[in-house]
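To illustrate the input format used throughout this study, we show a single complete record. The first block contains the structure-token representation of the backbone; no residue identities are included at this stage. The design step must infer an amino acid for every position from geometry alone.
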């Protein structure tokens, strides 16, 4: 079937269904020696500029963006030295509960890293985006450069006009809080061979959080509020995107919200589901 527009994905044919194949189906060479491109002062300075533009509150160390900037050269040099000597250790994130819109009494846990750690994450993100962006699925729109909610809606309207009028509106329940670290690392390893970068990413996922009273350790999930968390979520959900479309569904996903379509020529009916199963191994049948 031909591509309808730049925002309408290509239906997939038969593809290998092992988890690792979705991120490197052609066996391309992995990226080596990446960490030295992360801790260059120029790269850290660019990362700092992005963190500064995004503003945001301080983490558990209570250091604000302005506080960090007051000793900018010293902070960036310290971060560079720690990354180069392998002594950098990310700190637990500060947990803050944000009320869910339209759901009284329900809250979304936000994990706020220290500004220092956000600069490090941003430097990693700047390097990793170009590695993983080419393998992300056309059905995915969240947290990707050049793609927006308007683009996702444009794709949906195109499919409405094609007769795909039945939709299941689904939300992956507690996705950020239940993301599987082992699967994320397995997928990262399909494109990145630098053990130091992989170690940094794993440590950022496992830092835990502070509720103001004590530090809580975690075995799953990524901080919703972390700079690299959106990228990690898209990496983890790429097999989900591909497998859903391999089964014949028209899919549009924005972060952990997705819609899938069936070509039934009847008045539009929208149904909402909250997926409670593992979006990779159970609901899609992808073998981990």
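Output of the design step:
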């Amino acid at each position: 079937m031909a591509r309808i527009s730049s925002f309408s994905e290509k239906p997939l044919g038969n593809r290998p269904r092992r988890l690792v194949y979705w991120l490197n189906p052609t066996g391309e060479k992995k990226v080596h020696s990446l960490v030295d491109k992360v801790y260059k002062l120029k790269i850290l300075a660019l990362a700092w500029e992005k963190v500064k533009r995004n503003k945001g509150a301080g983490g558990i160390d209570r250091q604000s963006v302005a506080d960090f900037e007051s000793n900018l050269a010293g902070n960036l040099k310290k971060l560079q030295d720690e990354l180069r000597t392998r002594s950098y250790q990310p700190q637990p994130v500060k947990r803050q509960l944000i009320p869910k819109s339209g759901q009284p009494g329900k809250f979304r846990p936000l994990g706020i890293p220290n500004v220092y750690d956000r600069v490090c994450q941003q430097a990693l993100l700047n390097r990793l985006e170009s590695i993983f962006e080419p393998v992300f699925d056309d059905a995915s729109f969240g947290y990707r450069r050049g793609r927006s909610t308007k683009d996702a809606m444009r794709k949906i309207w195109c499919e409405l006009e094609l007769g795909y009028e039945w939709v299941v509106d689904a939300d992956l329940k507690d996705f950020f809080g239940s993301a599987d670290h082992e699967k994320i690392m397995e997928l990262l390893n399909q494109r990145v061979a630098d053990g130091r970068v992989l170690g940094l990413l794993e440590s950022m996922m496992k830092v835990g959080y502070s509720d103001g009273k004590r530090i809580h350790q975690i075995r799953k999930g990524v901080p919703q509020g972390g700079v690299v968390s959106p990228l990690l979520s898209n990496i983890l959900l790429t097999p989900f995107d591909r497998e859903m479309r391999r089964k014949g569904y028209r899919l549009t996903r924005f972060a952990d919200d997705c819609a899938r379509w069936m070509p039934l020529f009847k008045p539009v009916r929208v149904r909402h589901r909250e997926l409670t199963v593992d979006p990779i191994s159970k609901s899609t049948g992808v073998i981990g």
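Structural context for interpreting the output: The chain has ten helices and eight strands. The longest helix spans residues 115-132.
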